[in-house]
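Table S7 (text form). Paired inputs.
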Amino acid sequence: LDHHYWRAECARVALFMANVPFEDARMDYNGMYSSGALTFGTFPALVVAGKGVLNQTQAIARYVGHLTKMYPEDPFLAAKCDEAIDGLTDVSDLVTDTMQERDPKRKIAWRQALVSHDGRMTMLLNGLETLLEQNGATEMMPFVAGKSLTVADLAIWRAVGWLSSGVIDGIPSTYVQQQFPKLWALHCAVDQLPKLAEWKAKNPHHYARKR
């Protein structure tokens, strides 16, 4: 899909930032399901020339992280990257669950409950905020696993941008900014990287905020 959703975007951006050539194939639903690349019937998928196909966000992120040197060599820090991406997946699943509700008012109410003080999404984002605290994240080093940028930081950057874009009815665009300062600081720091600006300029329709 031609979509800026974080699950695929963290891999695309890592490859772009590391100058690793790749074909950014964006298909409609029929094209994806007829491609034979969706092992689990879900997307995204990464086709590796001469090797095969990878599905599942974590597997793709880990593989691309290794290719781009954006994945820690230290086993513990590597696991912290996985932990962050798994946490983001849980957050995304909450939003996906709300899609089954066809009544717009009930859907918004469902999402509002998720982002309430004791809501499930708030609990999960508190967990991600804690990961940053555990890593000693600062303004100069806002990362989630170690002292340098990883594919997990790119995943957080894009997920926070998605949650803050205003496109998800029922989730205020200021939700993360007001409640999770370290997540927001990481998002802002990564967003200012020159290669990110170049990527966004290539895909401007993905990064417009809803007004």
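Next pair, protein 2 of 2.
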Amino acid sequence: RITAEAIQQWAPALSELKELKVLNLAHNQLELRGLEVVLQALGDCQLEELVLTDNLLGPKAGRLVAELLLQVPSLVTVNLSENFLQEEGAAMFAKVLRGAAPRARLSLDLSSNDLRVAGAKALSSLLETDAVRSLELAANRLHDFGIKAMAQALKGHWASLIFLGLQENNISDEGVTALLEALRDNQELQTLELDYNAISDSALSALTSALTACRITSAGNRPKQPG
């Protein structure tokens, strides 16, 4: 695994790769120190995709990566999954991008980051700006309250969103009802992933009937039992 110390040795060479389009550094041990080195080296490139899955980055990575997105307009796909961003990281990420000038719409993977309800609320502000075309939020303990916040943001702001991943978030019929209300007239969303939640067959059926143009996945759902 590449450590912060090791990436420092590679930084000069990395900064020379001006035509680099894809950089995959998944499953290493960069930590925040290593990320800072990488982002500084990438400041003057034409990068389009950055994968940083599982690098022990922590909440402050949210702000650093968002700042890189502003600095490198060509960068449209970012994977920050499994990095302990938590609510704080989501809030910093959204705050940096929220007031930015319009740019190419983003594909973001923020799965398995313990974002919780507060993180969902923070990211909802990005949905309201139509800045995101694909958003993966699997396994973030969003619960129904987080989904309701996102559903509120989606009302009237779904023109750019074509993919939404919400697997393993303890979502029940209550959350699905909120999504249904927000997306009832949406013809843009192509894929909605709701696998491994707590949604009943009847709620899934209602959602599927309403979103006829959308592919909905729902494997492994176990509805909550009364009481």
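The chain has a mean pLDDT of 92.
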